Amino acid sequence: xxxxxxxxxxxxxxxxxxxxxxxxxxxxxQLHWGAPSTELLEKKTLRVGSLLFHWGIIFAFIGxxxxxxxxxxxxxxxxxxxxxxxxxxxxxxxxxxxxTWVGLLVLIFRKIYFKRVRKKAGLSDFATLVSLLIxxxxxxxxxxxxxxxxxxxxYRNTIGPWFRGILTFRPNPLLMVGVPLLFQIHxxxxxxxxxxxxxxxxxxxxxxPARYPAxxxxxxxxxxxxxxx
Length: 229
Known about the structure:
The protein starts with a helix and ends with a helix. It has helices spanning about 1-30, 45-70, 70-75, 80-115, 115-120, 125-150, 160-165, 180-195, 225-229. By secondary structure, it is mainly α. The chain is globular. The protein has one domain: Up-down Bundle (Fumarate Reductase Cytochrome B subunit). It is built from nine helices and no strands. Helices cover about 70% and strands about 0% of the residues.
């Protein structure tokens, strides 16, 4: 019953909360849809932390698609051996994980250290960043720690088929029973974050800000220059 709840009922419950919450917020709260910029309050630290986090999370998403959504048979068909796959997953996944992790630390430091930013931030902002930090820390620990110090875990035989079963409404909870605890916690917390998306600034993820990493920074005049003119 515990496995049935954790690996069948709980994921669908989290996804339902996310979908219903997004629809409700889109229909009744579009004025608050997004993540208002605090660049006017502090710029230098935001530039570093935001770019590191956003680029890191984009490549982390791509890595999850390649590892979870693409079946192992596809890699076998193209001659990608298990050793080669895990070498690249550990190398690039580790780099991306560290970049994302550092970006989150910078953003959390910014919200705590700078008084004006701290006053603007709400409880949900801190909760979101801390939740992301925990999830990214677990993911990076799995990639660099478990896969290197213990053994490369072949999640393409367990977590991958299970997650694709969730998407196709044919979940098999038995696939997750023997998964290492660190991986299980990472999955559980990730679904919890999905459920929280409609109630936080993470909702702007669904606006697909594809141009964000390359967009120009906000431009404004200082009071000194304005008075001189």
